[in-house]
Amino acid sequence: MIPTPVALAALFLVGACNEPQQATAPTPAETAPNNGAGYQPAFKNQTRAPDLKAGVAFNVVAVVPSGLEKPFGFTFLPEGRFLITERPGRLRIAAADGTLSAPVAGTPAVDPSGQGGLLDVALDPNFATNRLVYLSYAEPAEGGGNHTAVARGRLMQDAQPRLEGVEVIYRQAPSLESRLHYGSRLVFARDGTLFVTQGERSILPGRMQAQKMDSLLGKIVRIHADGSIPADNPFVGRPGVRPEIWSSGHRNVQAAALHPRTGELWEVEHGPQGGDEINIARKGRDYGWPTITYGVEYGPGVRKIGQGSAAPGLEQPLYYWDPVIAPGGMAFYDAALFPKWKGSLFVAGLGPGYIARLTLDGEKVAGEERLSIGKGRNRDIKVGPDGALYVLIDGRPSQLVKLVPK
User: Fold this and answer.
1) Is the dihedral of CA 51, 56, 58, 64 positive or negative?
2) Nearest-CA neighbor of 254 among 199, 177, 332, 178?
3) How does strand 118-123 pair with strand 132-140?
4) Beta strand spans in 316-363 (E)
5) Triad 286, 291, 297: Cα angle to 5°
6) According to a count of CB atoms within 10 Å of the terminal CB, is the N or C end of the chain lower?
7) CA 363 to CA 40: how far, in whole Å?
8) Segments in the chain below pLDDT 50
9) How far is CA 42 from CA 39, 162, 309, in A?
10) Are 77 and 346 in contact (CB under 8 A)?
11) pLDDT computed for residue 7 by the predictor
12) Left if phi > 0, otherwise alpha if psi is -120 to 50, otherwise beta: which for 49?
């Protein structure tokens, strides 16, 4: 049977409707202009991931509403208390009601200039029995300059809280005359070893040592809790290589956390103008700075750094921001208080004053959501024992706040 013209027209319309339609590109979370270097991501969603909202309503509750000065890091003590560092050199204990103790006595002397001072704080995995607290800080060097250092002491709490038996367990070398890029996050691995993240001190003589293996600048190091070197570190016994080194080629790592499933160390580091990046800090790997980067030099114009954004043998970031968010801290959410956030990675931003919530698909970023919690520089972020998300804000006023369901 020969179809009529009307039937032919109907068949054409049905076919046209069944033709695949061109998909609309998802809107990215970041829409501001990039740094203009012309770099292209190495794979899909390596940057400017889709704006993927979880639809979670929350309230921001002040835990420590005031009284802090330039806070940098915090951790949780028993009975709802907190240890909080202030960069001028003070360690404070905050009670559950937000009241602050007098400064803890016995903390090491710090160089508080620039980005320096008293920085991160962590509890020994066996704190309940040994009371050991670990501090990272900018330490003035005897011959001039300064460097990142780590000390530990036993926290005693009576009429005057204090650290006893304080000893320095790690010093970055060499020391430099710089006020920048100390890194300084402290993360205990599941095996009890301690990761110390660092910077390359920003100035050119330091930058050029980030990939030199006889230098500790621009490295993540792994040590035992007493400062000794683990025998299974990747470069132990290799001539001309510092045995503390775990990974190299880092610019300024101010955010780090263990993945709750794999136990691997993830970190976020500051790029220059553009190129803040997330990496999984794996044993013996080189993360490229300053040979490769997605950023450019500070200032007007586009002045590229190194060889471009990729080179053989150098690791690609699993995600990067351009323009930067200036990362201040990071946390994986694996609690039950916010079911829709479970599995997310949160990265606190210093510059824009927001928190980036990343939806992960294995080791890839599937989406990004930006959460605004008020004015200030979000210095640190952690998930509390109660499942709330705690954020340390350096602002006016400086506060410790928590995000709870609305």
Assistant:
1) negative
2) 199
3) antiparallel
4) 319-321, 327-332, 345-349, 354-361
5) 130
6) N
7) 19
8) 1-20
9) 9, 50, 9
10) no
11) 41
12) beta
Q: Are 119 and 138 in contact (CB under 8 A)?
A: yes
- Percentage of the chain surpassing pLDDT 70? 94
Supply 279's token pair: 């990496």
Distance CA 141, CA 123 (A): 26
What is the domain class of 69-328 according to CATH?
A: mainly beta
pLDDT tens sequence across 113-159: 999 999 999 999 999 999 999 999 999 999 899 999 999 999 998 87
Q: Which residues are catalytic?
A: 181
CA gap 67, 398 in Å, rounded: 7
pLDDT of residue 23: 62
CB 84 within 8 A of CB 64: yes
Give the phi and the psi of residue 340 in degrees, each rounded to 5: -75, -15
Nearest-angstrom CA–CA distance, 340 and 318: 23
First to last CA, the chain: 67
Q: Which amino acid is at 338?
A: F
For the chain, state the CA radius of gyration.
Answer: 24
Furthest-apart CA pair in the chain: how many Å? 101
Task: Quote the CA–CA distance of 364 and 255 in Å, as a whole number.
Answer: 18
Taking residue 372's Cβ as centre, other Cβ atoms within 10 Å add up to 11
Structure-block tokens of residue 85? 């560092």
Instruction: Report d(CA 355, CA 143) in Å as an integer.
Output: 40
The answer for residues whose C-beta is within 8 angstroms of residue 5's C-beta and 6 or more apart is none
Q: Decide: 294 and 277 in contact? Cβ < 8 Å.
A: yes
Q: Give the integer Cα–Cα distance in Å for 208 and 200.
A: 8
DSSP helix/strand/coil, 211: coil
234: which DSSP letter?
T
Residues 6+ apart with CB under 8 A from 87: 69, 70, 71, 72, 110, 112, 116, 117, 118, 119
Dist. CA 292–CA 310, nearest whole Å? 6
Report d(CA 201, CA 185) in Å as an integer: 15
Domain map (residue ranges) of the chain: 69-328
